[in-house]
Amino acid sequence: MAYRDQWVTCEKCGKNFVFRVEDQRRQASMGFDVELPARCADCVEVVELGPGLRQGVVKWYNDEKHFGFIVQRDGSEVFFHRSNFLGENPAEVLKDNTPVWYELQSSDRGPTAVNVHLRE
Ligand SMILES: [Zn+2]
Hints:
Blueprint: E1 6-9, E2 16-19, H1 21-29, H2 44-48, E3 54-62, E4 67-72, E5 77-81, H3 90-93, E6 99-107, E7 110-118
Parallel strand pairs: 5-7
Antiparallel strand pairs: 1-2, 3-4, 3-6, 4-5, 6-7
Bound molecules: zinc ion (ZN).
Zinc ion (ZN) binds at residues 10, 12-13, 15, 39-40, 42-43.
């Protein structure tokens, strides 16, 4: 697929912004379907804190510390604890760049990923 910069109008604030080739490549390299974002960077957080299953990839997971981080579709990172991984042998399967599904939940320390499971 050929990537090119594309203008997008934010559905929330109506601002025009560029969906850059670098962002499209990054999404593709992470195993995502490349889709036009509906909202600009200023408004996307509202969406990201909504309910529902999201696609991400494991940035790293440390089985001794019992936690790790997931890279979200927008490139930001979110914390997850082993207790929120739905599966066996997290030390074995949660390698760097492993595609996962997760849901976001707010906590005292900010958003955290819950219901983390492998994306086949
Ligand atoms: Zn906006």
